[in-house]
Structure formats: structure tokens, C-alpha cells
Amino acid sequence: MQLLVIQRILGLLLVIFSSTLLPPIGIELYYQDGSVLPFVEAFILTLVGGIALYLPVRNQKKELRLRDGFLVVVLFWTVLGIFGGLPFYLSEAPDLSITDAVFESISGLTTTGATVIVGLDDMPHSLLFYRQEIQWLGGMGIIVLAVAVLPMLGIGGMQLFRAETPGPMKDNKLTPRITETAKALWFIYLGLTVACSFAYWVAGMGLFDAVAHAFSTVAIGGFSTHDASMGYFDNTAIELIAVVFMLLSGINFAIHFGAIRNRTLRPYWRDSEFKAYISVLAVVSVITISYLQINRTFSSTTESIVTGLFQVVSIGTTTGFTTAEYYSWPGFLPVLLIYVSFIGGCSGSTGGGIKVIRILLLVKQGARELKRLVHPNAQIAVKIGKKPLPEKVLEAVWGFFAAYFAISALMILLLMASGLDLETSFSAVAACLNNLGPGLGDVGQNFASINDFAKWVLCLAMLLGRLEIFTLLVLLTPAFWRK
């Protein structure tokens, strides 16, 4: 393990992150809300912390190994969550404890969207913008952004990229060079953000709200500048625009790249994961809208359609925007929506959850086992499209699936041991591990009322979900630390 090299990279990344505290200072100078000092202090502390880590080891310029990459990613997201909480902790409004400040920071950076803040409508614009900004940066992964920058500083990026994007599709690159891959991802990400901002503005949002909500929409984050989330605007056009961009952001960005480069929509229709993604959301939307209509939850059919569709796409993609109190909807709908969040977005997207590709592989594997019962000696391959997959990929998916639900069960028990009821514990773990945000029970509106122990457990759940379990768990294995 090259600890000095890791320290150098961590220092550089903190220095880079300190620059994200400058835009909120500019916002504060424009709106004059009287909250500039927390950001100046946080900027200085983050910059000095980064420099202090970097300077003693500035000449350590060795190439990263794969194990070093995993450690850098986990350390950086952990340290970043702490430093990212400084503006929340140092601000007088809201007055947050260290636990709440770190929780809000990690929730933003992991694009979870679970919040402990009440009274967003009265908060300074600079802090509101900062919440949205860290979600936008976390959406694609600050590490991926750094991959495009670090080569210019003499640091190779492939190990970081592979550690940041685990899963069955992680070795697919959009372009031959990793730096170009990161740039391609960010150009698509930025393009979607600009288009979403413009659409929101045209539909009736103010410019500040349009940009802020575009940040969290494209990031599949769910933070809002209002306590009522998207329901604040009470605008059907805005809700439908959000549905479109949430759907787009939940698709594998490699497909967007292929469609843009070849100027055709064929990459979408040829992709099995995309078709499964759209099919699941379509079926759940029909069920939800029908049940809302049968129970006369809303006064009109149009309202049932728009609200039902919006909530299914928002929770199914793990964005977490709300336009209604879905946790009080009739019958099985709230639990159904939570279950859909376990599926989440496509691999290579900003969505959370287990990912559609893994669920698709599990279904195909299950179908293969049924066929084997009838034809025990048959050699049956599991295919995605027309391509048979290696057995090691299926084994990795089963391993991920087992780890995911074992960790879920353990965390639910820990939260119940801390005093939370079953509904709250289950939905809080699901919401944080899936990087969803809103839950049921005591965490239906926000997470402010739960105890500090539960919040720290959920911080770990958010990090595990963002790094897709294994990136963090691998650090706990003895084999990782052996020379």
C-alpha cells in the first residue's frame, strides 16, 4: 500500500474541493443574506487541510495500484463528507449539530437527498445553492471529475475510475483514454443540466430555482430549495419536465454518448437494460395511477395521472422529489414505491439502488435454473442481448445481492435497537442505502427527529450505497491489507 501517494492525492482532491465553496460566496455577495462568513471559514479550513496533507508528500508521484484506488475513493468520500459539512455546522441558520451537518453533507454528496433541515424556504440563498451544488458534483462522482484533472497533475486515473464505478459494466469505456471518458461523461452531464435549467425556467421557475433544481434533477439527488419540494410550484409543466429529465438521468450515460455520437436513437432500443428500466417504471406507473383512481385519492383523473407518474419516476429512479405525501397514500402503494427504489437506475447513470442490470441478470439466472430443472444436462448461457456472460459476472451479481440485503437487515436491526419502529427503520435504511431520500413513518418528511446513532448508521448506509457496497467492504477484508 502506497500510503504517502494516497496522502498526496487526498490532499490534492481536498484542494480541488475547496473551490466548490467559492460559488456560494458569489451567491451570497449577490443576495446579501448575511451568511458569507461560514463559507469563507469553510473554504480556508478545507484549503489549508488539503495543503497540509499535500506539501509533506508532494514529491510522491508513483503510479496508483488498484488497491490504492479503492482506499483513495473511500477515504475521499469520508473526508469529503466531513469537510463538506463545515458550512452547515458553521452557519447560524440552520443551527445544526456536528452529526446533522455531516449527515446533510453526506446525503448531498451521495445524492441521497435525505435531509435533517426544516425551514428551507427561509434559509440563505448561499446555503440553498450549496446543498444543490454538492448533489450535482456527487451525481457523476467527484472522483470521475478528478480523473479528467489529475493526469495534468501527474497522477494516473484508471485505478480511481475503476474503483469509483464498480459493477458488471465497469470495464466498458466510452473512449480509448480514461481522461477522455471522464470528459465525455461530464459534457453529457453538463448538457443535460443546462437543458433542464432552461426547461424549468421556461415553465415558470425563477432562474435561481431553475438552476438549483436542475442540479438535483440531473444528479438524481432530490434536494429542493423548498420544504414542499416540487409540490411548492404546483405546476404540471414543471412536474412533467422533471419526469423527462429524471428518466434521462437514470439511463446509462454510455448509451447517451453512443446516441449523440452516431446521431441515432438505436442504442436505446438495442439495450436490454434500458428496455427493462422503461418497462418496470411503466408497469408500476399503471398500477399506481389505477389504484389512486380507484381509491379516489385525488379529485381528478389528470391529477392522479400526473402525480402518480411523477412519484413513480422520482422514487423509481431514486431521485426523491415529492409533489404529494406519498407515504400516506392508500394500501400497498407506499411500500411498492420503496420496493421499486431497490431496482433503481441503470448502471453508468446517476441513479442509486441495486441497478437494473443486476436485477435483469438475477431474473435471467432464475429463469435458467428453472430450465435446468427440466433439462438437467443442458448447457444454457445467460445472455444480455445476444452476448453470453461469463459465470464470474453472475457470481459477482449474486455476491452483491447477498451483501446488499445482509447489510440492509443488519442496519434495520441497529435502527430498531436505537428505538425506531419497524416501518421507520426499514424505510430509512432502504432510502439511504438506495440513495433515495424520503422514507415512511418518522422519516416520511425528513430525518430531523431520529436519534444521532441512527443518523450515523444511515451515513454509513449512504456511503455504502454510493460506492455500491464492495468498494467499501473490500477494505474490511484481511486479503486487501496483505502485501
Through-space gap between termini: 7 Å
Low-confidence runs (pLDDT<50, min 5 residues)? 152-156
Q: Helical amount among residues, as a percent range?
A: 55-70%
The biggest beta sheet reads: 2 strands, antiparallel
Question: What integer is the average pLDDT?
Answer: 88
- In spatial order, strands of the major sheet run 1-2
Class computed from helices, strands and strand pairing: mainly alpha
Series of secondary-structure elements, N-terminal to C-terminal: HHHHHHHHHHHHHHHHHHEEHHHHH
- Residue fraction in strands: under 5%
Please compute the radius of gyration using only Cα atoms: 22 Å
Count of discrete alpha- or pi-helical segments spanning 4 or more residues? 23
Shape by Cα distribution: globular
The tally of strands reads 2
How would you summarize what this structure contains?
The chain is an all-alpha fold and 483 residues long. It has 23 helices and two strands. 64% of the residues lie in helices and 1% in strands.
Protein architecture, described:
- The structure is a single chain.
- The protein has 483 residues and is mostly helical.
- It has 23 helices and two strands.
- It has helices spanning 3-18, 22-31, 36-54, 66-84, 86-90, 98-109, 125-140, 142-149, 158-164, 178-203, 207-218, 236-249, 253-262, 266-269, 272-294, 301-316, 333-343, 356-374, 391-417, 422-433, 452-466, 470-473, 478-481, and strands spanning 383-384, 387-388.
- The protein has a two-stranded antiparallel ribbon.
- Strand 1 (383-384) and strand 2 (387-388) form a beta hairpin.
- The protein is globular.
- It starts with a helix and ends with a helix.
- Residues 152-156 have low confidence and may be disordered.
